[in-house]
Amino acid sequence: xxxxxxxxxxxxxxxxxxxxxxxxxxxxxxxxxxxxxxxxxxxxxxxxxxxxxxxxxxxxxxxxxxxxxxxxxxxxxxxxxxxxxxxxxxxxxxxxxxxxxxxxxxxxxxxxxxxxxxxxxxxxxxxxxxxxxxxxxxxxxxxxxxxxxxxxxxxxxxxxxxxxxxxxxxxxxxxxxxxxxxxxxxxxxxxxxxxxxxxxxxxxxxxxxxxxxxxxxxxxxxxxxxxxxxxxxxxxxxxxxxxxxxxxxxxxxxxxxxxxxxxxxxxxxxxxxxxxxxxxxxxxxxxxxxxxxxxxxxxxxxxxxxxxxxxxxxxxxxxxxxxxxxxxxxxxxxxxxxxxxxxxxxxxxxxxxxxxxxxxxxxxxxxxxxxxxxxxxxxxxxxxxxxxxxxxxxxxxxxxxxxxxxxxxxxxxxxxxxxxxxxxxxxxxxxxxxxxxxxxxxxxxxxxxxxxxxxxxxxxxxxxxxxxxxxxxxxxxxxxxxxxxxxxxxxxxxxxxxxxxxxxxxxxxxxxxxxxxxxxxxxxxxxxxxxxxxxxxxxxxxxxxxxxxxxxxxxxxxxxxxxxxxxxxxxxxxxxxxxxxxxxxxxxxxxxxxxxxxxxxxxxx
Length: 605
Ligand code: O2Y
Ligand code: MN
Description:
Layout: E1 2-3, H1 16-27, E2 31-34, H2 39-52, E3 55-57, E4 67-69, E5 83-85, H3 90-93, H4 102-113, E6 121-129, E7 138-144, H5 147-156, E8 158-159, H6 161-168, E9 174-179, E10 203-207, E11 212-216, H7 221-224, H8 227-243, E12 246-248, E13 250-256, E14 262-268, H9 275-279, E15 289-294, E16 298-302, E17 308-311, E18 316-320, H10 330-335, E19 341-343, E20 346-347, E21 353-354, E22 366-367, E23 373-374, E24 388-392, E25 409-417, E26 427-429, H11 433-441, E27 444-446, E28 458-460, H12 473-486, E29 494-498, H13 517-528, E30 534-536, E31 541-543, H14 557-563, H15 568-583, H16 591-604
Parallel strand pairs: 1-2, 2-6, 4-19, 5-10, 7-9, 9-11, 14-25, 25-29
Antiparallel strand pairs: 3-4, 6-7, 6-8, 10-11, 12-16, 13-14, 13-15, 16-17, 17-25, 18-24, 19-24, 20-21, 22-23, 26-29, 27-28, 30-31
The structure holds 3-[(carboxymethyl)sulfanyl]pyridine-2-carboxylic acid and manganese (II) ion.
3-[(carboxymethyl)sulfanyl]pyridine-2-carboxylic acid (O2Y) is lined by residues 77-78, 220-223, 271, 296, 318, 386.
């Protein structure tokens, strides 16, 4: 086995060194590379991947510093059915997770990883989730045999020597083991995207009690960039429960009023609901400004002042490309204008990228995400629906100046939402913290083509955390509820449920969405400031028609009526459906949520 420079980690000491040695003995790589996180290292790995055919360098005049990767067609998205939470007991993982016995799964992982990196380089990535000086920063060490993963992790996390120095100064780390599961026999030629093509042999495994992560067989996104969904959500949610904070699937934004008043808001939406678009939106109302602190994950802790403070543990955006356009998200487009890795989009003849609903004409011809010649007339999508851009957060034109603040930002509102074609109004303010937790627990969304399974069905997704909560969701609800006992409840953020996706009888959206969503955010901020009116209804406090700023928006009065309508029959069905989703938790479901459901039923009459 050879060791690639730097020959030894500059200052690595036990226990990290011992663990890396143990993993190398297990995985049997041809070489070990300790990543320093430098620009030079990033460039040389990109160059290596260009040579191996994994990356295509894009035209530097169109996309400076950008590359395109095409995955294996079997490796295009997170694999929920192969994601496991291996807590000590099945009950600790809860009814919404795939549980496996931790000892048995450790044995399986050791079998899978034995020799898994033969013929490949094992990269050692010291990374931090959150600013290093944050009170809840967590450090991970990912080992991986995928250079694609290394360069993506360098964009998405704080990676390199500064983190190693912290470990050597005594900081704990979370071991994260990853292999694409495609060892090379001597002399065997490599392929551009090695992976394990058999879905049944992929494993995304979490041991929350260690804590540790093992991921085998996939090189794609959330399966392989272990800092993101695996560490920052599944493992962090379980650590956060023990330590008294929250790891959430939420964007963080700041809405600044014309008078300069800042309101920090966190918002949870299931996957494929436009979280990235909302996080970076350009408000349609003059004088109001949105700046973004994060588009996917928020770590939230109780500050000394009794308020909830949120920070983004990531440093990049792993955004879905199709649908990202100058209309839907000009700031995301600007963020990926340079130094960005594109995966599974169309390569245009002039060395640029294209995807469906990019808002610019399709090229007359191109190379599709599978590497085949493609034309708009071919009847197939050129970009995969889950194709992605990995772009540095700092490149977003509306990145908030406080986005790297180790303390985070104080939240005044928490939003929940989903794609709900019926019943759920445009905006609804919770009566209390408990009512807000109930709203979060009742989150759900109509599935889209990009999501797993059948499109157009309602999937309950409490707190948008169904695929990401690393422990029993009933205990997670209790943890959320506990904050009302841990602080002055007047200091907690107000909670809202929003829905941009309600449709009229003709099937069309009633609300324009995008920049006009700022009108709803404005109402929320004015509620917090005590200057906007609301109508108290059975389901919560709804905007009065006059309290929404609709200036310059040609919204038919009938649309507004329907957007703010309380559909009693629809809500009765909703209650039955939420009750059904609660049933699986049995006695473990906090009584406060049953009380909320009963009270809602009673208010509806
Ligand atoms: O399919 C994947 O691996 C990506 S999933 C993803 C990526 C960025 C942000 N959110 C998500 C998600 O599924 O919520
Ligand atoms: Mn997400």
